[in-house]
Amino acid sequence: MATPSLAMIPSAYADSKVYSVLPNNGDGDFTFNRDSSATRVGQNGLIQTVGYFGSELVTNGDFATDSDWTLETGWTISGGTANFSGGTGNKAMYQAAGITNGKTYKIQYEVSSISAGQVAVRFGGMSGVDEITATTIGTYTGYITATGSANGNIHIEDNNNNFVGSIDNVSVQEVLGDQPRLNYDISNGVVQSCPSLLLEPASTNLLTYSEDFSQYSQTNITVADNNSTSPEGIVNSSKLTDDSTNGNHRIFLSHTTTAASHTFSIFMKKGTMTTAFLRFLSGSDIAGANVDLESGTISATVGTAKIEAYPNDWYKCSITGTAVSGTSYVYVYMKQLTGYSGTSQDMFVFGAQVEALSYASSYIPTDGSSQTRAAETCNDAGTASTFNSTEGVLYAEIESFISQDTVDPNRYITITNGTSNERVAILFGGNNNQLRAIIFSSSQSINLSFTTSLTEVKQFNKLALRYKSGDYAFYVNGVEIGSSTESTIFSSNILNDLSFDVGGGSLPFYGKCKDLRVYNEALTDAQLQTLTTL
Amino acid sequence: MKISKYEFNSQSDAETKIAALPHSTDEDGNNYPTHKHTIVKLGHIVLEQGEYDAEGNETKAPVLSDKYCVDVLWKDLEETDEDGNVTINHPYGWAGKALDLDDEGVHGFFGVKYQDNKL
């Protein structure tokens, strides 16, 4: 079989980039964007936060102790602040913070008192460049890109030989920017070896506390937060223990919903108690399910329910129903919906989330306020020389989050001219389990569409679309879905862009992608059958 | 990238402003935004939490704002004039509804602080 002109198998990425395997000159790399942090499942099966800022690089930035900083003449650390009382020679205090040339950092510090002069924070070796200066009390934030002269240190400096004051809470974090997520799927609790590129829409966790269950209303139950190892691999899951009361044993939390489909998801793990009931109340019971954490099963009583096994006996359990506008409530009942006399049995919970989607998206942590993960885009791979506009194949192995998406009905992957006016497209359609292929050319008056709904789209499917004058065909999982002898074809060299959208940035693809390729020749039927066979 | 928080007199006022942002229609007749902003409709936010008895029944209703609240993470608002000066402004009609909070408010964008990116 021919070698693809462009191949993206999720394996390497950088800030704002998803690298393609082919071509290897950079032309095939995608531009990625997401304006917030997000979480993924890492190679070790643990939930990890990706972007937007890196970890704290300053040690003892709150000056709790007189340590970790090198103090030039005049600087002292005492009383929980760093202090200077005027001097000569622009004296500084500094520490090695691992600053790397070429990278951009967010710097923040607080001036807690000042009676004279000016203080500056900068990178060592970059005197006079991108300094963040202050002459009044306040918190100061700035961004500095380290240049070749930077020596790895963070400097706090008396800037005019007359600074008199104190500073506190010095912070330096690398700006990681728009980091794509290579997500490792988990099947029956086992982490899969090959990741997929995860592209999700914006979503808001409406629950103001996702991990601090002591904030929840409690009925005949005690909550011990930070009790055991969570799906993040750190000790921040909560233990629920029932008491001896004969009645319901539950926690619940209110939130505000709109009149739309909503999903409540939560990570749960058995303790001495192995069963639970999840309930979503919005005007009436809109979703509920019995959960068995021993067998890993869930049974919906209202709405729909799903359970996914995670490593270390954790399960991600979710229930979905249609909420009303107003105050709604989610509940976790130990053992069952109905009352019983407790015997100090326990179970573990982590990562509660309610979102206005008909499925549970990736985890969005909250701690006192609802939080939104921004939508993701991935586009602009290739140039006119990458693609053959007059014949070729677009191939993708993709999975949808949902069988039918009424919010984002058409989710495209396309080769285009940078707009939707000229496009070779494969997409999730708006109907149930719908996979589609479209060839559209405004300039050449081509409008071909092939559609199937015969396979489950919430699993990985292999799709290939061949375009060539007199020889169009769409294959899914080794089966030809449709073909055409349409004789018209795109103008030469008009296709120049491979994107996860309809062309021009709209109607983005939301789902998972394991493999994406473009061939610059029209593969044969036999080759397409082989290529797409599961 | 800038973050701003808004308070509208009603949901319809907010929806009107959101609908006025750039959008288009696909071949199936579906409207879709062509802008890259992230708009979060918070609605009538809770000013005072409700209270509940041991059975989970509401004993005191939460107090809701009479305003309709919207948080927006704006993307690519920068405009450059003929002298090369870059300005960032609220889209037309939004500035008068903007709030200026001293804290992060009741909602945030995961990992991105409002105070650091306030418009």
* Cα end-to-end separation of chain A: 17 Å
What's the number of extended β-strand segments of chain B?
13
Number of helices of chain A: 1
Count of discrete alpha- or pi-helical segments spanning 4 or more residues of chain B: 1
> What's the overall average pLDDT of chain B, rounded?
88
Main pleated sheet of chain A: 8 strands, antiparallel
Any descriptors?
heterodimer; A: 534 residues; mainly beta; eight-stranded antiparallel beta sheet; six-stranded antiparallel beta sheet; 1% helix; 51% strand; B: 119 residues; four-stranded antiparallel beta sheet; two-stranded antiparallel ribbon
Describe the structure.
The complex is a heterodimer of chains A (534) and B (119). By secondary structure, chain A is mainly beta. In chain A, the strands form eleven sheets. In chain A, strands 1, 18, 21, 39, 44, 45, 46 and 48 form an eight-stranded antiparallel beta sheet that branches. In chain A, a hairpin with a 1-residue loop joins strand 29 (275-282) and strand 30. With 119 residues, chain B is mostly beta strands. The longest helix of chain B has 9 residues, at 11-19. Chain B is globular, with a radius of gyration of 18 Å. In chain B, the strands form five sheets. Chain B has a four-stranded antiparallel beta sheet. Chain B has one helix and 13 strands, in the order βαββββββββββββ. Chains A and B meet through strand 27, strand 34 and strand 37 of A and strand 4 and strand 13 of B. Strand 37 of chain A pairs parallel with strand 13 (107-109) of chain B.
